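pasting for the record
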Amino acid sequence: MKKRQIEVAVISDIHLGTFGCHAKELLNYLNSIAPKTLILNGDIIDIWQFNKRFFPASHMGVIKEVFNMASKGTKVIYITGNHDEAMRKYADFEIGNILLTDKVVFEIDGEKNWVFHGDVFDRTTKGTAKIVAKLGGYGYDLLILLNSVFNWLLQLLGKEKMSLSKKVKNGVKQAVSWIGNFEQTAAELAIENNYQYVICGHIHQPQKRIIQSHKGSVVYLNSGDWIENLTALEYNNREWTIFQYNEKDFEGRATNESYIQKRAPELNVLTNEISFFLTSLSV
């Protein structure tokens, strides 16, 4: 399969290790592109809800594919989010083509792009409210699981899939208002710092729009998620676009099965092979 050449790809809110993660679909997408730079904009591994009893091979396959892309020359920038905040203590660690950081500003075609996850504006991820947010995360995961069963029944009846969680969020005025405030806050800070683009994740709402204030304007972008929307941001030919995953576009394209083994191989630690040699220097 010929891969699409992309200058920059941004994905966020994958939530590896949760029931709602569409890892196989994400693997299809990653196997279809060859970006010069891949930005993972937070909540990639869901450490909040991590359970060693649930981490399917397809989830590990996403991690393997990211490392595979880095080994082939793609610059990978991992920006931490609130669900993988445990890695923030290692910010600005770099090895090979992989950089771990909390935010990044880069210039492309003469325009400055400011990228960060976005939870810095969310009071529900701080202090005692964080406990409630974690509990809410488990409830959200359960809703996604129930939604998958609901969609299976809809398909049997020949009807289109439906996102229950999106309907809940869109029906709650407070949630809609909060999303608007989030976008406006990010945009105003970007304008003050003379950035042309501000790129976030966190709220699971793919978006591309111009936001104006009395000080100027900025293009606000959000990469969405791989739980409900299955979206990414792509930069090519001097333009940012939102990629929307469509399973019909990937029919007949086999996912790399070496990444999705059905069971773990049997452990064998015996070997006669010498891996490397050490030579001591005598004085």
